[in-house]
Design brief:
Layout (H helix, E strand, L loop, with lengths): L9 H13 L7 E2 L4 H5 L10 E2 L1 E7 L2 E7 L10 E4 L5 H9 L4 E5 L10 H12 L3 E4 L2 H9 L7 E3 L6 H10 L2 H8 L4 E6 L8 H14 L3 E6 L5 H10 L3 E4 L4 H10 L2 E3 L7 H8 L3 E4 L16 E4 L3 H13 L1 H14 L5 H19 L1
Parallel strand pairs: 1-2, 5-6, 6-7, 7-8, 9-10, 9-12, 10-11, 12-13, 13-14
Antiparallel strand pairs: 3-4
Helix pairs in contact: 1-14, 6-10, 6-11, 7-10, 8-12, 11-13
Amino acid sequence: MQEYVPHYRVPLFKRMVELAESEGIDLKVVAGTPQRKQATRRDAGRFHPHIQMRQTEFGLLGRRVTFRDAGWSTRGAALVIVEQARRNLDVYFDLLIRPSRVAVWGHGSDYIQSAGRLETWLLTTITNRAAWFFGYTPTSVNAVVAKGFPPQRTTVLWNTTDTSALRGNLNQVTESEKASFRGESTGMAVFVGALDKSKRLDFLVAAAARIAARRPGFRLTICGDGPESDQVRELERQYDWLQVRPAVTGRSLAVALSSADAIAMPGRVGLIAVDSLVSSVPIVTVDWAYHAPEYEYLDSTNSVSSANTVEDYADALENTIYHALSNERLRSGATASAELFTIEGMARRFMAGIRAALSGTR
């Protein structure tokens, strides 16, 4: 069950359905449509779920809360896999009535925000009552095991996007496309992601302004949509070195990555880490507490993590873009790190966990 299916999940779910069918498992994807702030991201995929879910979103004590209703369609399921999220009220009912049929998948812990005692307790309770946990990364699994979840009922997914499709698109990008994207810039950083508070866009633009003052040919291109789109567009009108484009996927993502000297992500780093490794374009980020689990895919051989100040970040980003030897070393490191991440591998790991969970719930 998903609140909605973002574009980067479509290949995973399609492949899982194929694998399940070949193994005699009836796997159904249940999903709704993006609500409110999620809708502003404009990242919903072209995917028709097997079951369309009704859902209602509302605010409660300053938090986003959702109630999903899939009708009777999931009542007879041997296993229902839900997101590891406190906001989905229906999950509490499922875990109360029949916890042995509920599995959760997700981050494992509160990586991307500070959580109070009650929030931490709720997340732990949701997870520990479940039949199985599918963690995005090894750190995700370690986090729930540390809170008492049985390690023998976990699966590490190695969360990824469709790297095969990305590689294909990267191979087709032409020099003229890159030249058009770069314009007259002598050094280019790109940001790719949702335009929201977690990405620290004000921090990014402040650092970029420092570089632009020292490097007249520098350009920052921000690719994305989200709640802060209007603010970012206003900044674009102020700075001639800043360009803002809509969210990029498929071929347009490949063009953006191929044209860049570095990926600038001073805020939350998640699946963009995979895009960085596959495209061999180094991420420059900061040492920060709120990265998503996929941040662990990065290290000093394939990325740069500066101190958490605008000045230090500007220096690190500038050096990565304009120091050719450093840039080439990081690109080589990214290429070497990318082989693990495929949709095929993630789908097969997911299905192996589903089989194990089913054998334990019968």
